[in-house]
Design goal:
The complex is a heterodimer of chains A (about 300) and B (about 120).
Chain A: H1 2-23, H2 31-57, H3 65-73, H4 83-124, E1 126-127, E2 134-137, E3 144-147, E4 153-157, H5 158-163, H6 166-181, H7 184-197, H8 202-226, H9 231-241, H10 252-259, H11 269-282, H12 289-311
Helix pairs in contact in A: 1-2, 1-8, 1-12, 2-4, 2-8, 2-12, 4-7, 6-8, 6-9, 7-8, 8-11, 9-11
Chain B: H1 3-17, E1 21-22, H2 23-29, H3 37-49, E2 53-58, E3 61-66, H4 70-81, E4 93-94, H5 101-122
Antiparallel strand pairs in B: 1-3, 2-3
Helix pairs in contact in B: 1-3, 2-3, 4-5
Amino acid sequence: MVYAVHFAVAVLACYLIAQVLTRSTWTYNSPRVAIVCWQAVGLALGLAAIGLPLAAGLAPYDDGVGNALMRLASGELAPGFGLAHAALVMAGFGVAGVLTGTTVICGLRALSAQRRHRDLLTLVARDDPAAPGALVLDHPSAAAYCLPGVRPTVVVSAGTLSLLDRAELAAVLSHERAHADERHDLVLLPFTALCRALPWAAWVRAARDTVALLVEMRADDRARRQHMDGALAAALLRFASAPSRVTPAGALGIAESRSTRPLPITLSIADSHLDARVRRLLTTGRPARVRGAIALGVTATLVVTTVALFVG
Amino acid sequence: MRLGELERAVMDVLWDRGTPLTVREVAEALQNRELAYTTVMTVLDRLAGKEMVERERAGRAWSYRPAASREAYIAQLMLDALDLSSSRDAALVRFARSVSGTEAEVLRAALAEEAADGRDGKD
């Protein structure tokens, strides 16, 4: 039973560390360290969630999870190993199946969405000397994004080209290339999968959103290194205050009747994120070395301990 | 010429003409590129496989037309780009999202209208 308790403690520790990391702001000054910490917490949480029912089911063996599983597989039935125990072991495998299954499904869905997106880009996007190395979509709304993959593609809309000046655009393109270089889509994948697997867990969603913000900050940092101070912040602010530029042919009636009222402003997560990003770009924060090192130490210990619980 | 460029050239012909075209007609429109008939057929086949063109019998040959307008495809890409598409898969990494409710409605309306047009056209 002692192993099950250890796993339960590990789950609790993951939850608590996630709470702390979600609320911390030192992470804004060291986004890369924070991203690594989050990966560690995610990994430890997954392992502990698998290990907890396994260890509870294998308690009669009074052995480490790995050894006990081996003994069970070789046909050795420990005294007191009953149906309930077998069910718990199955539940452990079930959790493992759901976690890897959702991650694989999420990855495959993203891949197919990316393929479709890439196919459509081939047909309708164009090169533009104003945005070197990027594709341009002829649409008046402002958008800039990276289509990740082996051959990543940076895309901006015509609305972005008219919204930003040359320096701002260059900074935005660098930001997108940083996403592509560091494969931030893969960084986010396990958290998106975890959200799918546990749609009712608000704290998992909060974790995902936090990691998404950190990834943006990391890309901001990369872009900031190569460009004038302020260009990126200015670009962000322009995006935030970009008016609705869509003038639909055939839907004018709707648009006109709406334009007499103030536009509905939905304060989404994206907006508060934008605010945090601009703020930190305009102030020079020092990297949080001490707190970063502590967080790295704690989360690394967490992973090592959880893995050791399986092996030991 | 790369396959993607060919697909794009073929779609451009279909979009610009606005009427269903046979393989031969597309090949003639692309005369300056000196493409073999079979090449054009392969490209149209691929596009049909990706559901980007629809084909129907026209006498003994097939005729092809775009499954949606250029604008509708751009609207689809923009919905993806602004994280408004229904699938919401972690497919893209965005710089920033700034979109009003109206903008989203307009983009969706463009797509819905396109779908309705497509149905009318088939009747």
